[in-house]
Amino acid sequence: MLVTAEDRQRLDPYLPFGLSAPASASAITRAQGAVKRMLLDQQLHPGQKVPIDDVASRLEVSRTPVREALRLMEGEGLVRALPNRGFAVRVISVAETAHLFDTRLCIEPFTAVAAYERRDDAFVSDITAIQETYKRILKGAMNRRLGMVADKAFHLRISHQAGNPVLVDFQRKLFDTIIFTRALEGFSLDRSDAAIVEHEQIVAAMRGNRADRVRVAALNNVTRGRDAIIAFLQQQAAIRTTL
To answer: Do 94 and 237 contact (CB within 8 A), yes or no?
Structure first.
């Protein structure tokens, strides 16, 4: 699936730190971006060891800035140190995943209503355009982590409109944890189709004249996503215990 120049421009403000770093950025920042890009491009997966030498070679730097970048990513909760063996991408547990989505349930119905009350034509145009980008990504070659970035962009644009920068910053970190550390392999594609419909319901509610419908649409999107993901992770955990 070819992401258009307009799509890239639309997603750029919501990209995780380092992914859009210029060539003039520090080696540490560029190393953070390189590791995150490997995850986003599905060349590296949760649970796998980070190939420090490969990252250093790609950037034409020593191992030192790559290690420093990974220490910063450890502080972000995205990787974990392996005693005397480098770093591995962290895998969030079923319980932590549930906690993250429960936190979204506390935040997003509120920010959706607040955004609705402050909505203008530019805001509605933005979320409509982001939704089209999200749909194209999920209906295309299925880079599912890139789809998760588009999902993040959709929800953060709503929170920006709500006007609470503290919640925006908190959500940004929450979404990055989900994007980079959640297992995806084997997760049903049916959920993507359902999520597209749920986003469209949020956009339609934002165009309407009832705040309660906006709240319900936001609540349904997070609840249904949480339930599908938790059920999948529990199923995967049950399979591992029988092997």
So the answer is: yes
Q: Which pLDDT tens digit goes with each residue over 162-177?
A: 999 999 999 999 999 9
| Pairwise CA distance, residues 40 & 145, whole Å | 5
CATH number belonging to the domain at 94-242, selected among 1.10.760.10, 3.90.226.10, 1.10.238.10, 1.20.120.530: 1.20.120.530
- Using a pLDDT cut of 90, give the percent of the chain over it: 78
Q: Among the listed ranges 32-41, 56-65, 195-204, 229-238, which one has the minimum average pLDDT value?
A: 229-238
Residues making up the chain, counted from first to last: 243
CA 129, CA 115: separation in Å to the nearest integer? 16
Q: In this structure, are residues 171 and 159 in contact, taking their beta carbons and an 8 Å threshold?
A: yes
CA distance 206 to 67: 45
Q: What pLDDT does residue 199 have?
A: 97
SS (H, E, C) 77-94: CCEEEECCCEEEECCCCH
CA 64 to chain centre: 28
d(CA 29, CA 165): 24
